[in-house]
TrEMBL record:
PANTHER family named among the record's database cross-references: BCL2 INTERACTING MEDIATOR OF CELL DEATH, MEIOTIC DOUBLE-STRANDED BREAK FORMATION PROTEIN 1
Signal peptide residue numbers: none
GO biological process terms held by the UniProt record: meiosis I
Name of the molecule in the record: MEI1 protein
This protein's encoding gene: Mei1
Superkingdom per UniProt: Eukaryota
């Protein structure tokens, strides 16, 4: 079925949402819900379909070309298609790297536009933000060097020349710039305050991947970002109200992140002891899977 469905997608226009959205979902599920051997064959089929990849680029670009919806909570058919497109491309990036699959058509996306889609959210639905962050995590994990995504350039619209790094830090973080990094971190912090479970999981995962990327590029910058005093205020906000709130999975993963990069001004010995005490008193068998996993990572880090 991958052949006819992917070929059908390649003949569509981005506005053909009724046909494209379930088709892209089928391709996405075909990648994830199969055996490793079949998964590799599915990746080969999809990455060899030039018309499909050209369509996916057009779909993703609609994220910043179309006007934002008037109601942020409403997931329109166009937004649903964008979600499917971002998730499928993120998966293709992951599996193309895993299996070292040949690519017959590269995607070229504007990094500034991708970042701005998260930084300046403009009433984007939560699921769309989560999907874009999945893509952002994929390119960060591959240091913007995927053979599927050869060009992740900066905005050169209106005849502007390609901007040169303004500092040694910008040069080290290329293609990111320090200002973009801080803007993205602040935006992710603001998204965490919404306390939506799906959004929180995506935001913390994106923060983890971003700091890992920064640490590889420039350790001083990574440690500087991880030790920003605003993180402590964010933790206080997340911990406001509720019982056993330190055992929330997003809180545990954030604390683990700060511990990993030695942010002693964010996390004190007192908070570490409090988490250990709450974990000792909790019924571990009844903890949700996400909490158990986050607690395991925390204990390993400690």
């Amino acid at each position: 079925l991958l052949f006819p469905v992917s070929n059908l997608c390649g003949k569509c226009k981005p506005r053909d949402t009724d046909l494209l959205q379930p088709s892209l979902n089928f391709l996405y599920c075909s990648l994830h819900q199969t055996t490793p051997g079949s998964q590799q064959r599915a990746v080969v089929v999809l990455l060899s379909n030039v018309s499909l990849l050209e369509l996916l680029q057009k779909v993703l670009e609609c994220t910043w070309l179309r006007s934002p919806p008037s109601e942020p909570a409403y997931l329109s058919s166009e937004d649903a298609l964008l979600c499917s497109g971002w998730l499928l491309v993120a998966s293709l990036l992951l599996y193309q790297h895993r299996y070292n699959t040949e690519v017959h058509q590269t995607l070229s996306l504007d990094l500034t536009e991708v970042l701005n889609a998260v930084i300046f959210r403009k009433k984007k639905p939560i699921l769309l933000l989560v999907s874009i962050m999945q893509f952002l995590r994929a390119v960060l994990r591959q240091n913007f060097s995927s053979s599927l995504l050869v060009t992740v350039g900066q905005n050169t619209a209106q005849g502007a020349t390609q901007p040169q790094p303004s500092s040694l830090q910008d040069a080290a973080l290329h293609p990111l710039a320090m200002q973009q990094v801080f803007s993205l971190v602040v935006s992710l912090q603001n998204l965490l305050v919404h306390k939506d479970l799906l959004l929180s999981q995506a935001v913390v995962a994106c923060l983890e991947t971003l700091v890992e990327y920064l640490y590889v590029k420039n350790q001083d910058v990574a440690l500087h970002v991880a030790s920003q005093p605003w993180h402590r205020f964010l933790l206080f906000t997340l911990l406001s109200g509720g019982q056993k709130s330190l055992l929330q999975p997003e809180v545990l993963r954030l604390i683990t992140l700060f511990l990993r990069y030695q942010s002693s001004n964010i996390i004190s010995q007192r908070e570490i002891s409090q988490i250990l005490q709450e974990a000792a008193e909790a019924n571990l068998a009844e903890l949700p899977e996400a909490t158990s996993h986050a607690l395991h990572l925390f204990l390993c880090q400690v």
